[in-house]
C-alpha cells in the first residue's frame, strides 16, 4: 500500500497521467479541421457534433461492458481502439472519412471512464475513495496542462505529430492497466441485462440530474466562456489563455493538499457547497471587463471545482451495488456527455441575448443543483 492506497490504484493513476500527457488532439480539433483539412466553420461544427453523438452512446455502452466483460478488458480495449481511431482520423482526407472517424472516436475515447471509476470503487475502501478520485482528477489536470502546452508547440511542426503521440499514450495506458491492474469485477450472474435496474434506482437518477447541472456549469469553460471573453469582452486569445492557466495551476497546487480533509466531510453537503461556489463564480463572469477580472472569477469557480472533484465518484460508488458499478458510472458519465452537447445549444442563444442572460442563468443552474444535492443528502447518508 502506498499512502493508504493499493499499488493497483497507483498503476491506474500512472496510466491516466500518461494518457492525459498525450491528450493533444481534442483541444486542437477545430483548428486541425479548418486549417489542415480546409473545412468551413460550419462543416467543422457538424463534425464536432458527430463526435458528441458518439460520446453520448459511449458511456452507456462502456458501463454495460465494464460489468459484463470486466473493468480491465473494457479499459484496455477502449484505449487500443482510441489509438487506432486517432491514427485513422489523422490520415483521413475526405469529409466522409473524417466524419466516420470522429463518430468512432467519440464512441471509444472515453470508454475508459466507467471502467476506471468502477475499478477505484472495487480497489479502494469507502473512507479513502474521495481522496482516490481526487488524486485521479489531479493527475488528469496535471497531464492535460502539460499536454496542452506541448500540443500547441507540436501543432506548429505538423498536426500528424499530435495524432501519433495521442495514439502511443493510449497504448501505454492500455498495456499498463492490462499488466499491473487485476480484474476486480465481482463474479455474479446478475451482471447481465441493461440499464433498467439503474434507472429504477430513483436516488441514482436524481443524483444524475444534479451531476447534469454540475456538468452544464463546467462545460461553459470549453464552450461559451472562450467565445464570450474574446468576442464580447474583446480579450485576446493570449489574455484568455493566460487567465485560464490559473485554473490548472490552482488545481495542481491546492487539490492534493485538501483532498484528504474534504474526503472526511459529509459528501452531500460538501458537493452542494462546491456546486454553489462554482455557480457563484460563473455568475460573477457577467461583470468581467478585463483579464484580472476574469482571473478572479476563474479562481472562484476553480475553488468550487476543487471541492467537488473527488466527491461525485465516491457518491456513485456508494449508491451502486458491486456488480453494477460499471453501469452506475456509465449513467453518471452520460450526464457529462449530454452536457457537452447541450451546453453550446443553450449557451449560444443566451449569449446572443447578453452576457448577463448567460452567466446569471449558469449561476442559477449551479444554485439549483446545490439545493438539489442538499435535498438528496439524507437519502444518500441512509444508503
UniProtKB/TrEMBL annotation:
Entry protein name: MFS transporter
CDD domains in alphabetical order: MFS_MdtH_MDR_like
Residue ranges occupied by any Major facilitator superfamily (MFS) profile domain in the UniProt entry: 8-381
Subcellular location per the Swiss-Prot or TrEMBL entry: Cell membrane
Pfam families: MFS_1 (PF07690)
UniProt main location, coarse: membrane
Membrane topology of this protein: Multi-pass membrane protein
Alphabetized Gene3D superfamilies for the sequence: MFS general substrate transporter like domains
The UniProt record lists the keyword Secreted: no
Keywords of this entry: Cell membrane, Membrane, Transmembrane, Transmembrane helix, Transport
Molecular-function GO terms, alphabetical: transmembrane transporter activity
Superkingdom in the source lineage: Bacteria
TM segment ranges: 12-33, 39-61, 97-115, 135-155, 161-181, 202-220, 240-258, 270-288, 294-319, 331-351, 357-380
Gene Ontology CC terms: plasma membrane
Amino acid at each position: 500500500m502506498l499512502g493508504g492506497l493499493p499499488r493497483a490504484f497507483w498503476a491506474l493513476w500512472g496510466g491516466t497521467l500518461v494518457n492525459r500527457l498525450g491528450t493533444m488532439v481534442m483541444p486542437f480539433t477545430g483548428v486541425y479541421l479548418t486549417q489542415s483539412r480546409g473545412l468551413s466553420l460550419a462543416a467543422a461544427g457538424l463534425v464536432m457534433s458527430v463526435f458528441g453523438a458518439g460520446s453520448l452512446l459511449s458511456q452507456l455502452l462502456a458501463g454495460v461492458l465494464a460489468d459484463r466483460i470486466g473493468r480491465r478488458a473494457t479499459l484496455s480495449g477502449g484505449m487500443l481502439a482510441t489509438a487506432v481511431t486517432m491514427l485513422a482520423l489523422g490520415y483521413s482526407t475526405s469529409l466522409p472519412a473524417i466524419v466516420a472517424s470522429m463518430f468512432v472516436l467519440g464512441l471509444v475515447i472515453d470508454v475508459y471512464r466507467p471502467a476506471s471509476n468502477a475499478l477505484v470503487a472495487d480497489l479502494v475502501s469507502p473512507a479513502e475513495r474521495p481522496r482516490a478520485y481526487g488524486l485521479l482528477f489531479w493527475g488528469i489536470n496535471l497531464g492535460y496542462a502539460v499536454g496542452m502546452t506541448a500540443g500547441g508547440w507540436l501543432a506548429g511542426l505538423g498536426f500528424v505529430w499530435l495524432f501519433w503521440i495521442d495514439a502511443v499514450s493510449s497504448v501505454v495506458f492500455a498495456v499498463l492497466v492490462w499488466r499491473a491492474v487485476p480484474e476486480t469485477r465481482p463474479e455474479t450472474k446478475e451482471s447481465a441485462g441493461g440499464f433498467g435496474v439503474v434507472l429504477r434506482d430513483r436516488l441514482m437518477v436524481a443524483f444524475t440530474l444534479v451531476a447534469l447541472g454540475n456538468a452544464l456549469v463546467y462545460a461553459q469553460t470549453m464552450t461559451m466562456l472562450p467565445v464570450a471573453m474574446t468576442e464580447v469582452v474583446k480579450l485576446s486569445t493570449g489574455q484568455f489563455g493566460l487567465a485560464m492557466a490559473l485554473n490548472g495551476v490552482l488545481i495542481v497546487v491546492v487539490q492534493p493538499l485538501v483532498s484528504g480533509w474534504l474526503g472526511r466531510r459529509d459528501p452531500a453537503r460538501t458537493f452542494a457547497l462546491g456546486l454553489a461556489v462554482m455557480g457563484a463564480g460563473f455568475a460573477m463572469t457577467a461583470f468581467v471587463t478585463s483579464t484580472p477580472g476574469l482571473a478572479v472569477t476563474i479562481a472562484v469557480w476553480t475553488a468550487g471545482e476543487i471541492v467537488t472533484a473527488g466527491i461525485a465518484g465516491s457518491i456513485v460508488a456508494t449508491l451502486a451495488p458491486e456488480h453494477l458499478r460499471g453501469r452506475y458510472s456509465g449513467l453518471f458519465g452520460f450526464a457529462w456527455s449530454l452536457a457537452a452537447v447541450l451546453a453550446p445549444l443553450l449557451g449560444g442563444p443566451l449569449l446572443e441575448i447578453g452576457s448577463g442572460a448567460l452567466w446569471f442563468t449558469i449561476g442559477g443552474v449551479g444554485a439549483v443543483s446545490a439545493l438539489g444535492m442538499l435535498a438528496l443528502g439524507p437519502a444518500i447518508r441512509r444508503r
